[in-house]
Fold each of these.
Amino acid sequence: MRAAALLVLEDGTVLGGEPFGAEGETLGEVVFNTSITGYQEVLTDPSYHGQIVVMTYPHVGNYGVNEEDTESSRVRVAGFVVREGVEEYSSWRARKSLSRYLEEAGVVGIRGVDTRMLTRRLRTAGVMRGAISTVEKDPAALLGKVLASPGMVGRNLAEEVSTPSAYEWGPEDASFLVAALDFGVKTNILRLLAGAGCRVRVLPARTSAEEVLAGGYQGVFLSNGPGDPAAVRTAIETTRRLLGRVPIFGICLGHQILGLAAGARTYKLKFGHRGTNQPVKRLETGRVEVSSHNHGFAVDLSGLEALGGPLPPRGGASREWLLAWQGRIPRFQTPFGILELTHVNLNDFTVEGLRLPEVGAFSVQYHPEASPGPHDSRYLFGLFRELMEVNLAQV
Amino acid sequence: MPRCEDIESVLVLGSGPIVIGQAAEFDYSGTQGLKVLKDEGFRVILVNSNPATIMTDPEFADATYIEPITPEHVAAVIRKERPDALLPTLGGQTALNVAVELAEAGLLEEFGVELVGASVEAIRRAEDRRLFKETMERAGLALPRSAWVYSPGEAKRVADELGYPLVIRPSFMLGGGGSSVVFGPEELEEKVSWGLANSRIGEVLLEESVLGWKEFELEVMRDAADNAVVVCSIENFDPMGVHTGDSITVAPAQTLTDREYQEMRDDALTCIRAIGVETGGSNIQFAVEPSTGRRVIIEMNPRVSRSSALASKATGFPIAKIATKLAVGYTLDEIPNDITRETYASFEPTLDYVVVKVPRFDFEKFPEADPVLGTQMKSVGEVMAMGRTFKEALQKALRSLEKGRAGLGFDGGPESRLGLEECIRRLARPTPERFFLLARALELGASVEELARLTGVDPWFLSQMRQIVEEGKSLARMGLTPSSLARAKRLGFSDLQLAHLTGKREEEVRAARDSLGLWPVYKTVDTCAAEFEAHTPYHYSTYEEESEVRPGSRPRVVVLGAGPNRIGQGIEFDYCCVHAAFALKEMGYEAVMVNCNPETVSTDYDTSDRLYFEPLTLEDVLAVCRAEEPLGVIATLGGQSPLKLAKGLEQAGVKLLGTGPEAIDRAEDRERFARLLDELGLRRPPYALASSPAEALKEARRVGYPVLVRPSYVLGGRAMEIAYTPEELARYVEAAAAVSPEHPVYIDAFLEDAVEAEVDAVFDGEDLYVGGVLEHIEEAGIHSGDSAAVLPPQGLSWSVVEEMEEATRRIAAALGVRGLVNVQFALAGGELYVLEANPRASRTVPFISKATGVPLAKVATRVMLGERLRELWRAGLIPAPGSWKEQRHVAVKEAVLPFLRFPGVDTVLGPEMKSTGEVMGLADSFGEAFAKSQEAAGTPLRRRGRRVLCSLADRDKGRFLPAALRLKELGFSFYATAGTARALREAGIEAEAVKKVSEGHPNALDLILGGEVDLVINTPSGRGTRRDGYYIRTAAWRAGIPLSTTLAGARAAVEAFARMQQKGWEPRVLSLQERLGGKG
Ligand SMILES: Nc1ncnc2c1ncn2[C@@H]1O[C@H](COP(=O)(O)OP(=O)(O)O)[C@@H](O)[C@H]1O
Ligand SMILES: Nc1ncnc2c1ncn2[C@@H]1O[C@H](COP(=O)(O)OP(=O)(O)O)[C@@H](O)[C@H]1O
Ligand SMILES: [Mg+2]
Ligand SMILES: [Mg+2]
């Protein structure tokens, strides 16, 4: 039998289990993900940088690991917590077991944990710092390390995971050339941009507006990524300077950056949204999209000036607030013209999408590229394409 | 969109009797649907012929019609009620078919009835395989290759093109009815003809076989705003080729990557949109080639289904309830999620546990049937279990089955004596034993790869099973230690398995566990994997850290449910348990339900205050009691499963409410019961007990032939037979029952020509409240569950009825009954005999309650908790004793038999119960009520056509004559086999002699199959032989011609004909509320 593993949370919760993956020790923000499928995509999603991910579905590893379902070049999570780590996998695409994959990636994990209890704790207390260790046997010592570790608020992790140098993606003869500011972009976003007719040049997070504008791009994409959006100051500034000069589309962290650039605030959610079953309503059509989420922060519109309706409560929105707009799309004044609320989450009414029609920019908090998750929201890539087309026609 | 304003009344169709392929799940969905419609303020009208359903309780609808679900009767209801809308998607295939027929006949249009939930076009696109194929192809979805044929000749041409094996599917059939796999040309013609005969439109599809592919199902919902969600994914353990209803199924899907799962989801949404189901739920089935991932769509059901009931229970997302709301105009994002309260239905549930459903088979009831599983459903019930892992859930499900198994092997099951080669040989074809054989093969060293190749079961499932097996082996070697015990419990091992593995007794294992503090914790089914708080205490057990059971504010009472449906125990017991929960709530207790049957109303989280989805074993129930600390447990309403636990629970210090184990034992132990009857001076048929064949023959001579033989202490009429001669008895005792001193047989004098009757009553220690007396239509010797019966009795004098009531009172008092009691009587030669007493809920409680409007199970629950009948009577909760005798309508119960599912099985009735369900015919006269019951049971007596074919056993020939004369009066013409024809002619009845099958053509069979006969009367003259009678009966079944196999049944049919064939007769429909008047 292998050595035991320990999981410790900053509130003093201690859980024992078996090692799953590499031996060692890891610290991070402990978050839970409720998706049943897609662990390989989750593991390789750069937005999980710095986080220890708890999977709520107990069996993890059933179909092994394959060569196609990765969202970046390597495993990104800081640690992995599962109830039942499965060794014997079955899938015609599988190449190896999940535990071997984790081990090779040097990622420390733990299995055999009452993940439901853990999830309930994170839900009531909010996400917490934590550690997994297969070497430290003393919970108190491990707790000490947890308490000494930095939290998520104020951390600019996007720049840590961004590409050091630019690279290109997609067909060379594409209709559009798009600059993607990389805060930890998922591969499937690049695939879908390419699918929408874009040649994408992926740029480091700190690329300046001038450099972008000099590149002759028909559109700019603001990617997803980890950490506190408010800390990514350079990119917020860059975005502000790009607004109105080129069509912009943002996803996740990119959405928060767009919001911040337009003058909105962001705030940290108690335990975030991480899963593939979240209902998002597109206010324009009334249609509900079942969507993929991975975020711990959200956009707060309460600091803006509302146009023809009440302001949302501080730190988010609510069903009552939305109802008070009587079916109209809530609008706000910003330095870049009108900001429209385009999508809301039907579980907690957080802002899921916004649009700055006057400057040709829009963004969503959730993941239309899915991976993992449902494909209900792929039309957004088409909207970006249309936006660029209209813009070209006007120029 | 809020609720539609242009509809005020809605007609809902139920699914009728429980049959294979259409079971209690439609009571569950229908009940949910009715609740929604009532809450929304609609006038609700219901048609359903099944009296054992909760949905037909008068309070669930404004007008409840217990009528046959046929176009004619539903049309009569429409004419009378003029509903604005018809909701056909809650009543299975039956309701859908009737709705389509009514629409096609123009009746809906004529009366301005709007079809809600699914349009006729959508139903056609889904159900008509041709339209389905076209629609799917246009939407870009792949199907197996296929072609339609209308004759065996055409089939041959197509088969040559597609190659073998092939799948045959008739259009418009449920539960895989008529579909089968053809392995070679030699089988083609027979199977195609069978399919053609079973299709409503004489069409079958020949389809490329995808045997061995992985089978998946998605449960999809869509609203009028075109929002669509997948509620649940289900993966079949068994590969394609085993009907999903017969397959072990697992939720969520286990072996799909997100990429494949999402593509399947895309296809499912494309499918529901293309079919055009505008609102409601659909079930979509897929096959996936394991080596390539190629995916084809198999079928879609545009309605609530068995799988959707399972998905609702598995996820906590109530599909039927939400489908109903969608049908009346709401959208998903307007419907609150009851469990979380803060979220809405427009999301996809996510699970943090694994659900395993295992079907239950009762092949031992049909020894001649082929137990190999195929594309036609053969299971009669199912259980579901939840655990945090597949292994735990699988083991829990297997011990829930009530088949004497304690989990996945390691319990001394029959396979434990088999060698590897034999296991492998038996695994070549799927049978109900396959998982035990797989476990045994793994135990003996077979590899996962080898077994996967052999059976088509995905290696993932097999490797999970292997982990259980490995642990079992190591436990057997190393014994129990604190850590191995903890590990074993996490793998789902039961105390019984551990006892078996380590040579201990179950109580010792439990004590060891207790000393370690090793008890299960209870997690909650919450639709969201704990992301939001759950407000509904819907629990399952597991071995982990944290338990979520909340302390109660009111005293709690545990109701033990009925477990899986099986032959001999259907929905009736669930009905009683649900009533107990309702009564407990009314009385201010918290009702805690324990059950493992996903098809039922009892396992709806709305029914009780707390629901434990757990196996009904002593171990699991004790654990629930430990967590809940109830005031007491009710074990006498759920039939055999909970009853068996009573003694153990009492010994473990749990308080049982109502009749205690001692009284139950005194009634069930035939010797003790006989002594009790003797003490009371009540008559019983002479009987004897024999421990050897020789003794049996000797004793039989003493009590006198014919005799009824059965093994001791076996319930549900299992392995019971009538022996008319010493030879027949010898055959039974030597072959069938293996008599020994440990396993003696009972020999009862068989009462010939006896009228059977039964009483259902509640006794409180002082007073007896008789619910009613049911007179059986078939004579004693036909199991009470299979016999048609009538209330009030038609042929018993009131003085005999009173004698029965008095006998019941004395038996109940002597046994110490507190609650329900059922006593079965036989009246022979003017004397009343007691056949048996059941101091518990009986199968007939719902029927009697429905016929009389008195909720007996609720009354019994109050009595069990200490209330007195006198008080209830004074408070107006029950009517005056004896008021059932004044009721004006006649209620006939008819049993529904599964013979069509089991080709090759003789259709004779006997003392062994074979029926799966029941229907009720309700009318002002016996003849009409009987006619309705026959129609509801699927073999309608004909309105026109007066040709009867008679073939009677010698002993019946003379006794048949009065009925024959009556038929003659009615203008019937007679066909008869030679002997019967002679007897008829001697009595002056003209009869055309027909040849027996063995005498060449044209013979009796040709007449039946050629549609030359309208009624068949055939009483069997022996058992188990393939004589002419067998062919005649089977042919009548297949051709759907009304068939009487008993004289009494024939007499009833004659009376019904007399009513129906009167000029101008039309079926008259009256609602239960109208019939019961103020009493309801
Ligand atoms: N083309 C096929 N090849 C092999 N097996 C099939 C095929 N089509 C159906 N089956 C099997 O037959 C079963 C019943 O078929 P299905 O179309 O689902 O009919 P039903 O209406 O009875 O549910 C399926 O569950 C599947 O196991
Ligand atoms: N002595 C008897 N004579 C005639 N029929 C009998 C006799 N005993 C039992 N039967 C018939 O057999 C059926 C089943 O027997 P019963 O004792 O009620 O067993 P179960 O426990 O299966 O209900 C009865 O419903 C009745 O029709
Ligand atoms: Mg099917
Ligand atoms: Mg009986």
Amino acid sequence: MNKREYTIALAGNPNTGKSTLFNVLTGLRQHTGNWPGKTVVHAEGFFTYKNEEYRIIDLPGTYSLYSNSADEEVARDFIIFSKPDVTLVVLDATALERNLNLALQVLEMTDRVIICLNLMDEAKKKGIVIDIANLSKKLGVPVVPLAARNKEGIEELLETVARMVHGEINTTPLVVSYSRAIEEKIAKLLPLVKEVVGEEYPARWVALRLLDGDTSLLHALQHHPHHFLKEGATYACHCAKSV
Amino acid sequence: MTEAKLARLSDAQPGERFRIAKINIEGTMKRRLLDLGFVPGCEVTVLQKSPLGDPTAYRVSHTTIALRKEESDHIYGERIDNE
């Protein structure tokens, strides 16, 4: 019997019902705490589904993962360094335009993503109709409609999570294409990034962060206990500058 | 449209709508404004000024966000007439 515990991360904008979903999934089996070395509070809980154990982390609610505030760094580092088995991106179905920003950022970082369209009850009240199949096709990952506070859609979500951790779902996350100038630079950087970080981290995403001059990521990479990254990150930084 | 003809977001008054054309801010703050929904092409409604005149609350893509003059001074666009 498989005794492995799967890790699920919950990401999403503030006020999307992320914590409601977290509470529904975990019941009372949760506690809040601090990340080592960080002051941002996070919650961690556990649940069992079909005899398998899951650990779920409620990441800080953010609009983005790139603005370098402490809570955004916590969310970003968790997705990149802790590599959750599945990242649930919780979106407010009544404000998709705003919410998809974060979803696209997460899709650049990992392909193990399930989009949770929460507040579907609110959306219905406002007369908002969402073509879920089409959204899922465009994003390249499963999209599950939810009304977490009424516990609607939870069963479908759990089933989708279970299928994803068992490798039964193939995703093809949408690749955002940038301007030609940026794409050319990404193409130049990619082989160098792959040389330095190998398969460990998403190369295209790292290249984009380097082009953006994201020093906070470089620091995180340097401090992460990974044998060849220490010099690698500095090297990559030089490469990025020369490109 | 030339920049000279563009208004600053900070000049728009409560009740007015404003279409963003350009954000003259660099770095992390620009990124943050974009993430919050202050994107060129999008429409912002001025909600109200705080009692001391700064910051000002804006409605942007279904959410209320307050900006200081420090930022709204550097967001350019056109004021949209009601009616």
Amino acid sequence: MTVLSKTLGFALAVAAATAAFAAAASLAVGARSLSAGNAPVTSCGIATLSATRTVDNSGTVTKVTVAGIPVACNGETLSLTLVDSNGAVLASVSAPISGTTAAFSALGSVSAPSLAGYRFAVMGA
Amino acid sequence: MTRLLVLLAIGLSAATATAGFAATLSVSSWHLWAGRQTLTKSVTPCTVTGAAADTFVDQASPTSPNSGGATIDALADSGSQRWAFLRFDLSTCSIPPTGGADSATLRLYMTKAPARTFTLTLARVLGAWSTTLTWNGAQSLSYAAATATAPSGTTAGWVTFTVTGDVDQFIHGLTTNNGWAVTASGSTQNANKDLIQFASSSAAANKPQLVVDYEK
């Protein structure tokens, strides 16, 4: 009986300790914990990005180069969307960032006259 | 019984611990930055009338320059070929290097048409030249692959070449603007019948034009 009591006591202690740890961990992912915003989320320091494009002789965009990427963004993902004057998507590409510029050349057949703007998104951890 | 309780305890611990780590993994700190850039297009095209430099070279007079006349010539006949050269100054359009050409057209007014249609070929010149260029000098220049071709037709009038890609490269500074050479090819008869002449920048009217739609 003594052995049984000791064993049971040990088991309950371990279970209680683990349960407490688990409960604490569970609290960290609860909706209220996330909304508290205790974990700081920082960007890689982008102020603005700008793009230039080249065209072939038929006026089709052959390459878009995005400039102004901070070095701190290396390894993150840059998404580039080409839009027309109505905001309709003409092409959309993305790639990991390596360097302070990023060049995209697989853009389909976007005509330069129809290109009215760029949308950028940089996502990272 | 003792073994049962020990196993129960370990199982409970493992189960809760697993749940705890799984929950921790779902917590991350991804961030997203988003921005946009709106392009400004030319309201009206920039038209450059008159080349900054134009001339032609003549195989029959290989050491003589031919600039300053009212025409620049193209001739396909072997032994007496003529090639026309033009270079435009794009600075009057004030297009920043961050902009680019949406479309660009080179227009030449043919004042003398050939008796038969010839193919006119426009190629970017890869080296510097001046209006004192001669046939011999033109042989030492390099030329890019043909940018555009156009049929001459057999009546006087405007001949157009699409030069969007070349002008875009000039704007971006990706290649030096040394202008273009225009040559003729086709079935020849004789120099008189085959001669093609365009109004030069020295002509009173119908000077060469470069028309550029662009983004700033």
